Amino acid sequence: MKISISTQINASQGIVYPLIANEKLAENLSEIANETGLNAETLQQDFKAGLKEIITLYPTQKGKEKIYLIGLGKSPKPMDVIKVFRSFFYHNKKKLPLSIGIDLTISQLEELIEYVVNGACLAEYEIGVFKTDKKEATDFFAADAQLSIYVLEKSLEKAQSLAKIGEETAKTQIRIMTLVDAPANKKYPEKMAEYALKAGEMYGFDVKIFDEKECEGLGLGALLAVGKGSTENPPRFIVLEYNLSALADKPLKKIGLVGKGVTFDTGGVSIKGSGSMSYMKSDMGGAGAVLGTIELAAKLKLPVHLIGVIPVTENCVDGNALKPSDVINTYSGKTIEVIDTDAEGRIILADGLSYIKKNYEPEIIIDLATLTGNCISALGYNAAGLLSNNDELANQLFDIGQTSGEKIWRLPLWDDYKDMMKSDIADVKNLSSLPIAGAITAAKFLEIFIDGHSNWAHLDIAGMAFADSEYGSMKSGTAFGVRLLTTWMRGL
């Protein structure tokens, strides 16, 4: 699919008119009726521009293709626009004409073009890559199709720039969704490392991979301890760096990202129930967010110095597996008493956080992890948990979440919860003995390993990295965090 931004409407295309349910709706429908030869009164009676409301029209004028009216509701937010266009193009991509235009001039929606393009491009994703009985059919994305987006002359230059951001964001999100949705036997730690190396070569950022022997030499005891139960697929430690400092005329912000990369989580000896274990292939959603953020930052040439650290492992069960009551060493030198082997994500993040703090000293550290079911209990599937020791950073991320549509909600990081993680025999235990405040106590555990860094945020994305969508009948990857973090960095 080719995308073009233009001011001249091609009347022979199928045309999509996105409309808002506001006081100008009747006027906008009358204008559409005049342009297409349709009855304005009928349009006003039949179409109210409710969110996701769609009407397909067939003009009688010669040379006019099909017309689609798409409702955006009363006050559409960016994520509303993305979901509307993703759903429309996904459900119609087998029957759309191969030349489609989206007219943003009628309702003067040029400022939403990034989200329009992003949603349309996300519709290309197909989850069934391993199916063998695929039916061949004309597909708007597979064919040499043309998507034209029409804007006013005064908005053309800015619209072209924003449309490119929307398109490149979607391409990266699709790559990360494909990775998260891949089964565990297709993305074990070595495969994740290969993915990172290839991405670095494609998009221009540095990648270092440490195998299990090198991890041992570095002292990454926490990562190696979790990986002991998977002898065939040992851990990897991935370090990514994107840096435009050499081309900048002033110092760039140095930002550190750490992502949890558990490619499959059985729970270890503290084994999970079988009911939803198949979803545990998504337990590397934080790693996917870090990979995607650095990839997209490099594609957009964002003026930042970005470091990503991803500890990658399986959490499996064999005779060597980590056991409850074990005490393990970490990169920081601190010791951890293992209460529950299913609280493994925070263990490997301990090494990742300590490593990035000691070796890079970033101004800001943000970690992302599908960490706790407790966060889902607190916030459901509409927001990720945010815990931070810096109010300014927390407020920035919250505001960007509202803007980007990847919402987050702050939970307290008070020291009142600190004692719940005290161990009698080690520096800290990996799980509180009380079945409450799990998302908060997990963050208090991680806080120990940032070594006093004063500008840190932890995002618990357990309820957001894998969600329901039109892509399939079960939950699938969302690439949550990529849009949030890159939008935030664009505003720095």
From TrEMBL:
<feature type="binding site">
    <location>
        <position position="342"/>
    </location>
    <ligand>
        <name>Mn(2+) 1</name>
    </ligand>
</feature>
<dbReference type="InterPro" id="IPR023042">
    <property type="entry name" value="Peptidase_M17_leu_NH2_pept"/>
</dbReference>
<keyword id="KW-0464">Manganese</keyword>
<comment type="function">
    <text>Presumably involved in the processing and regular turnover of intracellular proteins. Catalyzes the removal of unsubstituted N-terminal amino acids from various peptides.</text>
</comment>
<keyword id="KW-0645">Protease</keyword>
<feature type="binding site">
    <location>
        <position position="344"/>
    </location>
    <ligand>
        <name>Mn(2+) 1</name>
    </ligand>
</feature>
<feature type="binding site">
    <location>
        <position position="260"/>
    </location>
    <ligand>
        <name>Mn(2+) 2</name>
    </ligand>
</feature>
<feature type="domain" description="Peptidase M17 leucyl aminopeptidase N-terminal">
    <location>
        <begin position="39"/>
        <end position="134"/>
    </location>
</feature>
<comment type="similarity">
    <text>Belongs to the peptidase M17 family.</text>
</comment>
<feature type="domain" description="Cytosol aminopeptidase">
    <location>
        <begin position="178"/>
        <end position="485"/>
    </location>
</feature>
<dbReference type="InterPro" id="IPR011356">
    <property type="entry name" value="Leucine_aapep/pepB"/>
</dbReference>
<keyword id="KW-0031">Aminopeptidase</keyword>
<feature type="binding site">
    <location>
        <position position="265"/>
    </location>
    <ligand>
        <name>Mn(2+) 1</name>
    </ligand>
</feature>
<protein>
    <recommendedName>
        <fullName>Probable cytosol aminopeptidase</fullName>
        <ecNumber>3.4.11.1</ecNumber>
        <ecNumber>3.4.11.10</ecNumber>
    </recommendedName>
</protein>
<dbReference type="InterPro" id="IPR000819">
    <property type="entry name" value="Peptidase_M17_C"/>
</dbReference>
<dbReference type="GO" id="GO:0004177">
    <property type="term" value="F:aminopeptidase activity"/>
</dbReference>
<feature type="binding site">
    <location>
        <position position="344"/>
    </location>
    <ligand>
        <name>Mn(2+) 2</name>
    </ligand>
</feature>
<feature type="active site">
    <location>
        <position position="346"/>
    </location>
</feature>
<keyword id="KW-0479">Metal-binding</keyword>
<dbReference type="InterPro" id="IPR008283">
    <property type="entry name" value="Peptidase_M17_N"/>
</dbReference>
<feature type="binding site">
    <location>
        <position position="265"/>
    </location>
    <ligand>
        <name>Mn(2+) 2</name>
    </ligand>
</feature>
<feature type="binding site">
    <location>
        <position position="283"/>
    </location>
    <ligand>
        <name>Mn(2+) 2</name>
    </ligand>
</feature>
<dbReference type="Pfam" id="PF02789">
    <property type="entry name" value="Peptidase_M17_N"/>
</dbReference>
<dbReference type="InterPro" id="IPR043472">
    <property type="entry name" value="Macro_dom-like"/>
</dbReference>
<dbReference type="Pfam" id="PF00883">
    <property type="entry name" value="Peptidase_M17"/>
</dbReference>
<feature type="active site">
    <location>
        <position position="272"/>
    </location>
</feature>
<keyword id="KW-0378">Hydrolase</keyword>
<keyword id="KW-0963">Cytoplasm</keyword>
